Amino acid sequence: MFALFIFIFILFLCWGSFLNVLAYRIVHDKPFLQKRSTCNHCNSLIAWYDNLPVISWLILRAKCRVCKGKISILYPAIELLSAVLFSFLFYYFFCDQNNIIFYSSNIISFFAYFIFFSALILATRTDLEATVIPQIFSIWLVPVGFIFSYFGYLDVNLLQSFLGAAFGYLILFVVAKVFKYFTNKDGLGEGDMELLALIGSFTGYMGAWFALAIASFTGSLLGIAYILMAKKTREFKIPFGPFLSFGAIIYFFIKEYLF
């Protein structure tokens, strides 16, 4: 069992590496089908031994072997985050009292939430790096949530999925409009609304509400702490997408204990 989970962990580390590449290429409008990874600074090809998840980043001390340009900490962070989350997801669906159980239904459900978690990680990655959440990682996947819920592979039915998506988008839309009306400033981006719509389509309106509540609380705390420590002004903006993703993931794993 232990050896299996080591293998699973390494496998999901590699998936996290792929998510890094996917997020970077899409947000920077680079060809998705580019065969080899290159340095973001000097465009030199990255050798396979410099492309090992987490390990290469540590060995290279976060610098390109060729130009010594800095390699973002987002790379190992996303790889480790992916490995941990997907390992927990694997355990959630397939492990029962130290036994591995595979049924067709839980395999498809695992696949459904695998897509969902991947989208949340991708949205987190792009929002942290470029303060943007591409629609391909959010609103475009809402119909996928509808389809999986219709066939019974999510913990919500089709109506709950639809209401969750509508609620997720509209509540942030209203908040953004009210904020704009009273301050004449933009407080939330369209990407945040579309991401919460995605969360609602996979977790229902309760999941969207919980994710928003957790995101608002943690985002406020960390935002205030960062402003104080970094001596930023109140005009400083922090990405909201990672906090929404965090709230959605927490909800998924603890929802059965909430109601």
From the structure above, extract its key features:
mainly alpha, single chain, two-stranded antiparallel ribbon, 259 residues
Task: Write structural notes for this entry.
The protein is mainly alpha-helical and 259 residues long. It has 2 domains: 1-102, no CATH class; 127-259, no CATH class. Helix content is 67%, strand content 2%. It has helices at residues 2-27, 55-59, 74-94, 104-130, 142-150, 158-183, 190-230, 241-258; strands spanning 95-96, 99-100. A two-stranded antiparallel sheet has the order 1-2. The chain is globular, with a radius of gyration of 19 Å. The two termini are 32 Å apart. The mean pLDDT is 90.
Determine the oligomeric state from the structure: single chain
Number of helices: 8
Q: Tell me, what's the shape?
A: globular
Series of secondary-structure elements, N-terminal to C-terminal: HHHEEHHHHH
Please give the structural blueprint:
Blueprint: H1 2-27, H2 55-59, H3 74-94, E1 95-96, E2 99-100, H4 104-130, H5 142-150, H6 158-183, H7 190-230, H8 241-258
Antiparallel strand pairs: 1-2
A few lines on this structure:
The chain is mostly helical.
